[in-house]
Design brief:
By secondary structure, the chain is of the alpha/beta class. It folds into two domains: 47 residues, no CATH class; 227 residues, Spore Coat Polysaccharide Biosynthesis Protein SpsA, Chain A. Helix content is 40%, strand content 12%. It has a seven-stranded mixed sheet, sandwiched between helices. Strand 2, helix 6 and strand 3 form a beta-alpha-beta unit. The chain is globular.
Length: 312
């Protein structure tokens, strides 16, 4: 892993971006309420223009709802020049890969999408080569030998050039529409790392009880060693300032990435990295739908929790 420090406009001491003062007549003047068929057509046209301009859209919502309500919903201005790196490890996701890329690209945040194909054996690689690699904001990297999620993420982190890096699974269990809320603590200068928690108040699909028990047990054990009070250490959604994740020497090849990166973040001192949790929704899938993590990975996570706390 490259230990070179990369300067980012999202620095810990930077104050959060603010919206300009919106005059009280802003919405009336921008989008006058219709009173006849002609003005209705004009109103629709002006609304369409506002919808296509992210900054103007935020200004209108700010005028309608007020800043406190907008901040609670993750509606805030993105700093000029900001770029997000979305890192997606991929293995045998022929069924879902087009849709997850579509959803990621639809998020109205400047971004690059980095996909790492971990030697897929189904039709995933052909889709990546023939379709997704040709998209202007997507970059595809290929592993010639299957190595695991952790190895795919290491490759993706090396290629990231954005100010902030987020991990995205290649299935539909996690919703990219939640990126703005996950990025908010970092953009506002309050956090260096953000975990998206499935267990603190948002909706989720009801599935396997023993998976839930295992997740809670592993998170509790991880917290015991790290002295963090996380609720969901095993979550996919982990967001980092780029210099944070590129400054960590990661080694795990499979799902041990989760406890390893958590332990190494918790060890950081002078100054320590500020970690936040944000509630996220979760639509888990069954093994018939392609879920890959299993009992073997739970025992490996247990090993990694102890190993990476005691020794790098």
């Amino acid at each position: 892993m490259d230990d070179t420090t990369v300067k980012s406009p999202i620095a810990p001491s930077q104050s959060r971006p603010t919206l300009p003062k919106v005059p009280s007549n802003f919405f009336r003047d921008s989008c006058p309420m219709p009173n006849d068929s002609r003005s209705l057509s004009e109103f629709d046209s002006q609304l369409a223009e506002v919808a296509l301009d992210p900054k103007r859209r935020i200004e209108v919502l700010h005028a309608l709802l007020g800043e406190p309500a907008c901040r609670q919903m993750g509606i805030y201005p993105i700093p000029d020049g900001f770029k997000l790196s979305v890192v997606i490890p991929v293995y045998n996701e022929e069924r879902w890969i087009r849709e997850i890329v579509r959803r990621v690209r639809e998020v109205p945040i400047p971004k690059e999408v980095i996909l790492i194909d971990d030697c897929s054996k189904d039709g995933t690689r052909k889709i990546l080569e023939d379709e997704i690699s040709k998209l202007p904001d997507c970059k595809v990297v290929y592993h010639e030998v299957n190595q695991g999620k952790g190895a795919g993420l290491r490759t993706g982190f090396k290629h990231a050039t954005g100010d902030v890096v987020i991990v995205q699974d290649a299935d539909l269990e996690y919703d990219p529409a939640e990126y703005p809320r996950l990025l908010q603590p970092i953009i506002e200068g309050k956090a260096d790392v953000v975990f998206g928690s499935r267990f603190i108040g948002d909706n989720h699909r009801v599935l396997y009880y023993w998976h839930y028990v295992a997740n809670k047990a592993l998170t509790t054990l991880s917290n015991f060693f790290t002295n963090l009070n996380l609720t969901d250490m095993e979550t996919c959604y982990k967001v980092f300032r780029r210099e944070v994740i590129q400054g960590i020497n990661l080694k795990s090849n499979r799902f041990g990435f989760e406890p390893e990166v958590t332990a190494k973040m918790a060890k950081k001192r002078d100054p320590s990295w500020r970690i936040y949790e944000i509630p996220i929704s979760y639509s888990g899938r069954t093994y018939e739908e392609g879920k890959k993590i299993g009992l073997k990975d739970a025992f490996n996570a247990l090993y990694c929790i102890v190993r990476y706390w005691l020794k790098d």
